[in-house]
UniProtKB/TrEMBL annotation, chain A:
InterPro entries: ABC_transporter_permease (IPR051393), MetI-like (IPR000515), MetI-like_sf (IPR035906). The keyword Transmembrane helix applies. It comes from Loigolactobacillus bifermentans DSM 20003. The chain crosses the membrane at residues 31-52, 86-115, 127-147, 175-200, 221-243, 288-306. PROSITE patterns: ABC_TM1. It is a multi-pass membrane protein. Keywords: Cell membrane, Membrane, Transmembrane, Transmembrane helix, Transport. This is ABC transporter permease. It is found in: Cell membrane. GO terms for cellular component: plasma membrane. Belongs to the binding-protein-dependent transport system permease family. Coiled coil: none annotated.
TrEMBL record, chain B:
Its main location: other. Keywords: Signal, Transport. It comes from the Bacteria. It comes from Loigolactobacillus bifermentans DSM 20003. Gene3D superfamilies: Periplasmic binding protein-like II (3.40.190.10). It is found in: Cell envelope. The keyword Signal applies. This is Glycerol-3-phosphate binding protein. It holds the Pfam family SBP_bac_8. SUPFAM superfamilies: Periplasmic binding protein-like II. Belongs to the bacterial solute-binding protein 1 family. The keyword Zinc does not apply.
Amino acid sequence: MQQSLSGKAKTRPLTPANVTVGRRRWSERGYALLFLGPSLALLAVFIFWPMLKTLYMSFFLTDKFGHITVFNGLGNYRSLLQDASYWASLGATLSYVAVVAVLTIVLGLILAVAAQQQLKGIGFFKTLFSSTMGISVSVAAIFWLFAFNPSVGVFAQLSQALHLPEINWLADPHFALLAIIITTVWMNLGFTFLILFGALQQVPRSLYDAADVAGVAKRTQFLKVTLPMISPTLFFVTTVTLIDAFKSFGLIDLMTAGGPSNATNLLVYRVYQDAFLNGSYAQASTESVVLTLLIAVVTLVQFKLFGKRVTY
Amino acid sequence: MAVKLETRLWWCWLSGLLLIVTLTFGLGTTAYGAGRTKIVFWHEMTGPAQAQLMTDAKAFNASQSKYEVVPEFEGSYNEAVQKILHTHGTSAAPALFQSMDVSTAQLYHANVATPVQKFIDADHYDVSQISSVARAFYSQNGKQISMPFNTSQPVLYYNASLLKRLGIKAPPVNPTYSDITRVAKAITAKSNGKVKGLTVEVYGWLFEQFMANGNTVMANQNNGRSGYPTTVDFTSTATQKAMAWIRENIQAKDFIDFGAGSQAESNEIAAFLAGKLGMFVQSSAYISQLLAGTKDQLGITYYPHADGTKANGVSIGGASLWIANSQPKNVQQGAWQFIKYVMTPQAQAAWQKATGYLALNQKSQHQAILKQLYAKQPVAKVPSEQLAAATANPANSGIFMEGLLQERTLTQTAMATIYNGGNITSALKTAETSMNQYLANNNRANQYTNH
């Protein structure tokens, strides 16, 4: 290698002008491939291939082993779109995602701002606010299941003591989704709080000092200084929360298993049920494709709408 | 710095490696050396049932020197079915596996097992000692395809002490819907609404039992016993009556709804043990937990049936044992020997005492271990009596149909709708239409046709 390079250099000196563009491109590509190859191969085997296979399967029917048997064209998509319970799942998912995202971020921000105040014992609250980060889904589920128990739970006893109407949180289709939302927000809050609190700490004090000198009201300071300064973090937190909410699974599986009356049968849970309980792999593939498109659209809209307002 | 960081890292690395090596080889080695045929046994038992199963495997291994049963826990029933199907014929596949009731038709059609009938015939094994309702559940065309194992039946539990305190007459041992309604209403009225009378979990298995006890088949083709089912009947008189009965109790405000799934079960048990719930229907497998959990006296009756009809008897729930057909002959033989071992009167009696599942060997009832249990807790006998009282027929021998998990999801959706005030017939009809669509799709996908 060294030999041939130096050999060439003798006959034609290496100057930028006479190194052919195509040649440089080839060697750059070669290097790129060398470095990216391993991860590309892994992605191809574990991500791209399953994705394509899922898309392919959605046009067929599968037997109990998951083997493709009969071509079904757009039949799976058609029956999915004609299924009233699928539309109910879709509606439930969208409202779940929207409410969870808004509540998590607003509450997380409020807690983060509160924790910034220089008060005695604030360290205790900081620990308390971020503590749900260390709690696993199963522990949270058990804790909340007990709280929601209609006969011995905390909420039932409270409403009995206060003579309020008793709510059957997990068995009433009108409240089950709300119960899951409360639990999810509670679970997510620790992470959101911690990230937003970190971002608030990064805002230079000098900006607030300058604003104080200029006589800017505290509320205006928050809107004109704080929010723009933490906007990249807010954007990140929103994206993560939205995608996470779409993928919610654990709490639903442990608390309601999709019921009552499909009220909490969110899209991802449906995919799981169809594939791993009912063995309808083609149906589950179809639902996965639709869900992927949906998440892509929502993320795109989010980037278009809010991406421009982010100040880096 | 006393110890260099690098050295410490090396130590970490080494001890980690050592741990992995010990775990793989330490746990991998078995109590017996070479010379024995290994029988890998996949099961899904947890808690006391798992412990008892280990005891059985150990005792079996000690009782002979040809085979060694190696039990391996495979997670939930649902996950296990998929694992069994997807590993079949590979080196990862087990020799013997436990699979849940609702997977029976699916596994039979997948042709992954040697019917135990083959071994029964070769051994002239007296199969009549095993409960006929349980056997019928896992039979097709007169052949035993797998051996019923952990088996339960739904029963009605009531708090006998509570009824006594409130001065309410206990329900009869084979109650009708109106018997239960009377007690439920009385409980709520006499406790001033502090105690709810009744709950019926939103559970497809219980829905199926209303049909079985009402002598009604759910799927056509004789509940799948004479061909691949193509339609189901969720709107039968039996189901309408059962749903109307529950609706009546809901309207009388003596009923409490805990929803569906494992959370519903733990919530209803918590309520029952706390004295906030008077009666509930549930699997007989909870009996040990209930006896241990409260000082109140426990009452048990048969599963309720509609007024003016005779109870047909309920079907069973639980799981059975299958012998994989991909294994060599001697391995299959070993699996069969183990099945015979766990079905002995002694093993079955010990199984019932330890787990709450029913002893399927009828001779178990004369074993000292069960006699002692019944002397101490006479109600513990009721589930076994209910099982023995029924004669197997297509309605109470289980539904031989693929997609029973889908059926349960759909009937549970219908039940939840009805519990929350929806129209009974239209809720059932919606579920029925979806299930028929599923069946059409599934039959097409698996290329099933009836001749």
